[in-house]
Amino acid sequence: MGAVAPWAPAVTAGGQESSSHLPPVLRESGQREVFCGLTSIVWLHRRMPDAFFLVVGSRTCAHLVQSAAGVMIFAEPRFGTAILGERDLAGLADANEELDRLVRDLLERRPEIRTLFLVGSCPSEVIKLDLGKAAERLNGQLAGRVRVLNYSGSGIETTFTQGEDQALLAMQPLMPASDEPQLLIVGTLADPVEDRLIDLFGRMGIERVRSLPPRRSTELPPVGRGTKVLLAQPFLSATARALQARGAELIPAPYPFGVEGSRLWMRAAATACGLAPAAIEAVLAPLVERGRRAVAPHREVLAGKRLVLMPDSQLELSLARFLHQECGMELVEVGTPYLDRQLLAEELALLPAGTAITEGQDVERQLERVRAARPDLVVCGLGLANPLEAEGIATKWSIELVFSPIHGCDQAGDLAELFSRPLRRRNLLQFS
Amino acid sequence: MRIATSMEGVHYVLHAPQGDTYADLLFTMIERRDRRPPVTYTTFQARDLGGDTAELVKRSINDAVERFRPEALLVGESCTAELIQDQPGALAGGMDLGGIPVVSLELPAYSKKENWGAAETFYQLVRALLKPQLPPPGAAKPSPARWRQEGRRPRVNLLGPTLLGFRCRDDILEVSRLLGELGIDVTVVAPLGARPADLLRIPSADANVCLYPEVAGPVCNWLERSFGMPVVRSMPIGIGATGDFLREVTNLLEMDSEVIAAATNAEAEQRSRLPWYSRSVDSTYLTGKRVFIFGDATHAIAAARIASRELGFQVVGLGSYSREQARDVRAAAKELDLDALITDDYLVVEKAMAEAAPELVLGTQMERHSAKRLGIPCAVISTPLHVQDVPARTSPQMGWEGANVIFDTWVHPLMMGLEEHLITMFRHDFEFTEGHRSHLGGAPDGAGIEASGTKQPTTGAAASTETTTATAVASAAAGATAAPAAALAENGLHWSPDGEAELAKIPFFVRGKARRNAESFARAQGLHRIDAETLYEAKAHFSR
Q: Which of A28, A416, B4, B529 has a Cα at 20 to 30 A from A11?
């Protein structure tokens, strides 16, 4: 079990189910230092340039998406905020009218919008503004021109990447039904990465590979009994279940981070599609070989270094597996905001014995453990990074891990570089 | 939060859902703070709503007090928490917290905004802490000249600077130095860097300097009413205004005539390089540059005065999001024959900016984005700001050095203007060909770097060769940045091939302006077709 002392379960000892070789997961509930699901709009709008995300929320929500996005205005945002004012709180009728007016103005200004997402926030949830109804009403008014969908990205319902799960779930009812055999990659990937993966699958012999979300919001892939779902991101619990409910089969696999993860991920997909091992290996072997070469120099920096991952994007378990297995890092603590044991079963099995996993967060206690353990690197959100650096602890901001192309064997070197850079930088700097 | 984070020894318990913790990164990233803000969020979730969120508030308050042992505790709620009506302030009031002063904040997030919230928080905190010191009603006002009887140097407080304010850290240094030279001491600087114990010393000063009225206005008014402390209200931003400020302080403190004279001395302007730089022949090209100003009231008003009087610019737009100070902004605009724009809708500001067609925008980070999209140089003069506006070097806005900083920051984005004649001379030089990026970056005609990674907006040339049939295409493909192309088509304007060719000869960084000028000229003349002649007509028209 390794050094358990710092994890003396303090808050709740709730469900203690454990993978055979891992200590029980420490469940914490206290102040959570996590973005809300609204933030996922930032990468979703880049994926689907013909979609618009309208947050129905307060000024604080508008401020969040602007600050978190940073770059948004440069892009002429494909997202905006319908700001709830006092009048809206007083009467929902007003709020609905206001929303309709705003949507009309928006569509006049942005005629290229094909799909409009109404995104619920904390205030709209709390006042029980029914965005489902609003979407229905607007769909009636805008019939044929724009499709209006709704989901919640509120901080009381979702953390950070769960926003994408909710958005994909909202698109799901519009996906046509079809039982034709296909491989469906689910989860936002950078376009070049996706092209590359589809090409590789094609070389193995998988003919029909589609993606959710699609690049054009209106070109939704079909789903049915022939669909084999390959999750590209580990945070898509609700979407995965909804697709399964429509007959799709979920391919169990670790996630495509690092050479090994990507290899197992692609192999699982190819095997599920009935390909012969030789055909799979013929494509994978050179990729793996090259990927390992790309990771090697970073492994030199990272090997033996001690790592803590704070709960943030739900990529933590996969990243921990990669950083341990391929980069030789020692895992001090792996936090995740939410642990879906089914979707992460393959990753849990690959983690080294004794890995301390925490679910949820009590940020002050977790920081105390970090200070006590003095790890060499902490993966954390932006709010914690500079304060930790000031305490002499190197950090990697987790936000980059959802914005950068890091999936696949070809990206394994880049992924490792994101973690070796803070350590290399420390060695470069010298003020005496 | 800005007040709590600006101070030492204060902790803020904020009833808020987990998403609101993003606010931490405003301080740790934009201000590059080395500490987390002293804020405990309750981070309630949907499942807590069914249960007892009030209990969660109490637990968070207890934990925070135990962990941080603050000298004063602020308790408040975010917009969402406001809706569930737990009244954390009342809850805190009912708790035994070992005698720590607790200030309950009611900051209606749906009707009020950040600066108002900061001002109210600062006011509530000062009032709560100074209550025991309140002089009895009807007590005589202390004389601002009592320093003389007491045989000491006069002293003032600097009130209003905060984190995420615009260059507050550096302004304090500059203003303290200026006052020190005149023999005036600074007693308390607050909220930035102050502890609750420092706030208790506020009444020991002879006057308050209301350095940022957005934050310190209500406090200064209350201290004036309740403690009889006079307030210095001039803002020392720019040459003239710094002189006004020094005169106001020295007069108010009834200082010796030679000290007052030193402040009024014509030599005062020699203390800054701005007046000479502005008079130097190199600045000739600044004459009448059209400038659009938008920001908080303090900085916008100051900018209008500096721009119009001290740099010889023409102010073509002036506005602010500070509704509380709207009257002052309107007055400043009126002096310049303008109607002030008071709004917090950035799209309205952007529209006004586009209509005013300025050559320089002085605004907030938001206007910087808008200006970039319109291809207009911009300098940030006010919050909200970006990490780039928190430089490592000292760069105040106030006092003589502040004026130097302002000269540099405003004039540099215009520098390409100086080189216009060189550009004509060296038109065929490879340095001035398309691919070469000027420091201005995103002029719409260039092959700019697009931060978002999205497709570069349709370039002028491409859009116009597609001409009138391009309406749908241009607006669909280029989105918002299609404004010039879409407008072009909507107005039925058409660039002839020779007009197009002539336009292409104009260096890319002034081409956008030439295009806009030619189009507005053509519209004004009722022309539908822009050929080379129209371009020259327009050039003649606008160079008058």
A: B4
